[in-house]
Amino acid sequence: MKHPETRKLYDYWNSLRLSRSAPLRSDINPREIKTLLPRLFILQRETERSYRYRLAGTDLCRFFDGELRDRNFLADWQDNERASMVSLFQSITEEKSAAVLGVKANDGDYNECQMEYLLVPVRLDGSSEVRIIGCVGIFEPCAWLGRTPIQHQEITGLRLLRPDEAPRFLEHRQDALCEPAETVATASAPEGAERHGHLWVIDGGAAR
After folding, report:
1. Neighbours of 67 (CB within 10 A)
2. Across residues 71-91, what is the average pLDDT?
């Protein structure tokens, strides 16, 4: 994780998790992460290809030019990216993994913005249902963002963090970068990697 906001959410989520695979939704206190709320979102799985926004911060609604509640998160990605996200969400909800994505967003013209997504699972009290909490970090000021809606998002890197392995990953590589998508997708399968759509996903980095 490179962005301080995604790292802050990860640290908070991991502190609540303790020895569990994922914290409960009721463990989350919005006041403790209030600086992240404008770029925070919560997703609910409806089907394999439908993850609806249950909540979306004000910045995110501006970025996509409208209220995001009840909108399908996957609708804002192209086919290749959507396929990767479907597979990735399965790892998050079933294996309770966390994921870091490098993303390049653009307005459908020549304006681009480099972003980082963090996606982490939370469990509902008294239920087996898992929801996904996410946060978006923006690396550099993008004057167009919030005035012109995002039209396209491209995954430029992806790293999967297993709950039991993530602490060692962070210890050894505090500023770890996502593997570039173009490199991971075209190379032979890296040791310990898993295929997610058109990408190879690298685990958190713990020794095997």
Report:
1. 10
2. 91
State residue 206's pLDDT score: 39
Identify the DSSP state of 162.
Answer: -
Rounded Cα gap, residues 86 and 196, in angstroms: 8
Fill in the amino acid letter for 171.
E
- What is residue 55's predicted lDDT score, i.e. its pLDDT? 95
- Render pLDDT for 10-46 as a digit per residue (tens, 0 to 9): 999 999 998 899 999 999 999 999 999 999 999 999 9
Is the pLDDT assigned to residue 69 strictly greater than 90?
yes
List of residues 6+ apart from 192 with CB closer than 8 A: 202, 203, 208
Write the single-letter amino acid at 79: D
Report pTM: 0.79
HEC sequence for 66-82: CCCCCCEHHHHCCHHHH
For the chain, what percentages of helix, strand and coil (3-state, to nearest 5) are there? 30, 35, 35
**Dist CA 57 CA 62 (whole Å):** 9
Q: Is 112 exposed, middle or buried (0-12, 13-18, 19+ CB in 10 A)?
A: middle
Confidence of residue 89 (pLDDT cuts 50, 70, 90): very high
Work out the number of other CB atoms within 10 angstroms of the CB of residue 181: 23
Q: What is the CATH number of domain 4-201?
A: 3.30.450.20
> Which residues on adjacent β-strands are paired with residue 105?
113, 153
